[in-house]
Amino acid sequence: MFLQSEYLKFKNIELKNFSIQVPQNKFLCKGLNFYNLKIEDIELFFNKNLEGYSNFYFYDGTGKVNFKLDVSFSNIKGFFTIDNININKLAISLNDKIVINGLINLVGSFNILKGNLELDTIFKSIKKKGVKQYMNFGAIEFITSLSGTNPIKRVGTSNFYYSNISGKISIKNNRLTIEGLAGEKGENQYLVTKPFLLPGINLLIDKRNNTIEINELINRVNLAIERIKQKDL
């Protein structure tokens, strides 16, 4: 059996130029859009036990997912890696006023049971010759909205350089927890650290107050994006 379509939309998911091939047990898709996020050149393979893997591109980064699907189709779990994500392209897809230049790696695991998502992912910026690591104030505002720290007053219009972005995001029971893995200072964890000689900024998370309901997080992020838009009008 061979099924092919140029476009399909279901709720907030859009599929472009995809095909399902049976008995080869193969799914190919040129593009998958979820809200503003884009995944490209997806190749997915699975066996009769509903175990499989998928290769794809995510904002220039190369990704792979290994997964297992329950026969009742109510549970899927697996783990993933995405290397060399272009942070700037990812940030611009959210808002073109957010600038974060650099590369980042992701590694994590997931479990989706009856529509409920559990996720653990660790992210870490990586240094590469010729790629500068910096962000603008819009990015700082956006990151503080995610981490739950207090908004920072505008401190200039120049770029802020960073040495390391490192953290962990966990989702369970519709609540998100974010941790900084770039170091600790008392009850605070570093999410972003600045370089020694260049102008930059440290961004910290209070580990006593780092969990938020997903709906509240979405509202907080939307408000941050609107503030960024208004300040640049």
Please outline the major beta sheet: 15 strands, antiparallel
Strand content: over 45%
List the uncertain runs.
Answer: none
Principal-axes geometry comes out as globular
| Overall mean confidence score, pLDDT | 87
Total beta strands:
18
Number of helical elements? 3
Provide the succession of SSEs. Answer: EEEEEEEHEEEEHEEEEEEEH
SSE-based structural type: alpha+beta
Question: Which range best describes the helical content: under 10%, 10-25%, 25-40%, 40-55%, 55-70% or over 70%?
Answer: 10-25%
Q: What does this entry look like structurally?
A:
There is one protein chain. With 233 residues, this protein is of the alpha+beta class. It has helices spanning 87-94, 137-147, 214-231; strands at residues 2-10, 13-21, 26-34, 37-46, 51-58, 61-69, 75-86, 100-101, 103-113, 116-126, 134-135, 160-161, 164-172, 175-180, 184-185, 188-193, 203-206, 211-213. The chain has 2 domains: 1-71; 74-233, no CATH class. The strands form 2 sheets. It has a 15-stranded antiparallel β-sheet that branches. α2 (137-147) runs antiparallel to α3.
